[in-house]
Amino acid sequence: MPGTPFEDLLCPALSELSSYTPVAGDYAVRLDANEAPELLSTAAKTRLAQACSGLAWERYPDATARVLRQALARYSGVSPEEILVGDGSDEIITMLLSAFSQPRDRADGALIMTTTPTFVMYRMSAKVRGQRVLEVPLDSAWDLAFESMLRGIELSPPNLIFIATPNNPTGNLVNRERLERLIEAAPRTLVVIDEAYIPYADRDQLDLYRRYENVAVMRTLSKIGFAALRVGWLIARPALTAELDKVRLPYNMNTPSQVLGALAVNELEPEIRRIVQYVVAERERVACALALLPGITVTPSAANFLWLRSERPAQTLFEGLQARGVLVRSFHQRGGRLAHQLRVTIGTRAENDRFLTCLRELT
Ligand SMILES: Cc1ncc(COP(=O)(O)O)c(C=O)c1O
Question: Among 3.30.300.30, 3.40.640.10, 1.20.1530.10, 1.10.10.60, what is the CATH number of 54-267?
Fold first, then answer.
């Protein structure tokens, strides 16, 4: 415990949470954060820099982020009224949780349902709001355990269900039929489909959003070359975005993020496509190389990272790679089946080769 004199005033959940702190230090190869590799062209970087030269630095940003919302709407094939923008999807998650906070019937707090393992911010952000979180373990193929989720819904319908697909850290798209049945089983729950990695997959779930009133879709620029901008967005019915907009802080999107985020999707779409194609090709190459290593199995990935199972403890491989200057993500501290799993972001060809060489030395 921190020993602050305000302990009795702090949200009780803080005692069991820790700050989100990526591993610090200088690594020759960082494949730990699911960012895109550094592949933006010099021309694109020059264009981004030029666009900053005319900014009104003394003025607050456009509070409605009109131009950015228009750009993201066009890019996503929806209308600007269906777009809510956030400081990364992380902020969208907090806005959803703040808005969907009313306990149902006689429940003693809002209930959030998600899977495990999955992206940690659904749970963390709900906990700091004092909300209850039901995490349903994924099945042995890292897919939705539909029956268990259904039982949870019947017992106590959640306010929100977060489903990342492709899922982080497992990389797979969840089974579509199960997802659709889940949506149908929870008509009074908003099902948030987190499509952070969708540019790397061969199908999206926007049709489910169009068909079902209780679905919203979340996306981000972070995984396709623009993590520095912190631009995430929610696609939801206009009546819902209007309500969620009341929770949004007045100037949540700074001016450079608004201007450069719009520029990225309006002018740099060919760059984004090139980076995505490169990463997908590398992902398949690395997955094939890994399949040849003894004691390593790879889950088929629809994202920009791979989820590996090793017969040796993940901690041993993680530390061995770290000692060789290659940082990946390990979940060994969580124990159980995660003690043998590693998540590796796809980098440039040279970075991936370095990772493979080091891993070969360790297996
Ligand atoms: C599934 C998923 N959703 C959302 C995010 C966060 O995205 P953003 O950078 O837009 O906050 C991540 C980041 O790792 C993620 O894995």
Answer: 3.40.640.10
- Atom nearest to 92 CA in ligand 1: 11
Say if strands 160-164 and 190-194 run parallel, antiparallel, or are unpaired: parallel
Question: Could you tell me the distance, in angstroms and rounded to a whole number, from the CA of residue 162 to the centre of ligand 1?
Answer: 12
CB atoms within 10 A of CB 154: 10
Report the SS3 class of residue 137. strand
Ligand 1: centre distance to CA 63 (Å): 23
Q: How far is the CA of 197 from the centre of ligand 1 (A)?
A: 8
Of 32, 89, 197, which is best to mutate to test ligand 1, by the most ligand atoms within 8 angstroms of its C-beta?
89
How many angstroms does the Cα of residue 194 sit away from the middle of ligand 1? 8
Helical residues (DSSP H) of the chain, grouped into ranges? 42-53, 66-76, 89-99, 121-127, 146-155, 176-185, 206-211, 238-244, 255-267, 269-291, 314-323, 349-362
CA distance 340 to 254: 41
| From-to residues of CATH 3.90.1150.10 in the chain | 7-41+270-362
CATH-assigned architecture of domain 7-41+270-362: Alpha-Beta Complex (3.90)
**pLDDT tens for the 363 residues of the chain, in order:** 557 888 889 988 888 888 888 788 889 999 999 999 999 999 999 999 999 998 999 999 999 999 999 999 999 999 999 999 999 999 999 999 999 999 988 788 899 999 999 999 999 999 999 999 999 999 999 999 999 999 999 999 999 999 999 999 999 999 999 999 999 999 999 999 999 999 999 999 999 999 999 999 999 999 999 999 999 999 999 999 999 999 999 999 999 999 999 999 999 999 999 999 999 999 999 999 999 999 999 999 999 999 999 999 999 999 999 999 999 999 998 999 999 999 999 999 999 999 999 999 998
Residue ranges, comma separated, of all CATH 3.40.640.10 domains in the chain are: 54-267
